[in-house]
Amino acid sequence: MTGLECSRAGCRDAAVSQVVWRNPRIHAADREKIWLACPEHVSFLRDYLAARDFPVTVRDLPAAATDGALS
Predict the structure, then answer these.
(1) pLDDT computed for residue 68 by the predictor
(2) 16, 66 in Cβ contact below 8 A?
(3) Which end of the chain is more exposed for a tag (fewer CB within 10 A), N or C?
């Protein structure tokens, strides 16, 4: 894979954001999980996690990640 893809099921579009979350019932406060999101699905993924009362934030992907400089 040459680029980072959206984590939404069935989506293969390029990711531009990180949806950072954790399940407080099983993860310590310092443990974060990251889903990648394309512009179309960032709101869907954020809302999906927020509806489950998971702490969630959205961050832009670093430019190096979207340029393929990260491996």
Answers:
(1) 56
(2) yes
(3) C
Provide the greatest CA pair distance for the chain: 36
State the Cα–Cα distance between residues 60 and 14, nearest whole angstrom: 13
Distance between CA 65 and CA 43 in Å, rounded? Answer: 20
Report yes or no on whether pTM surpasses 0.90.
no
**Token pair recorded at residue 31:** 């443990």
- 59's enclosing H/E stretch is strand 56-60
Q: How far apart are CA 62 and CA 16, in angstroms?
A: 9
pLDDT of residue 65: 66
Task: Output 64 or 38, whichever has higher pLDDT.
Answer: 38
Q: Where are the domains of the chain?
A: 17-66
Write down the residue that tokens 């443990």 correspond to: 31
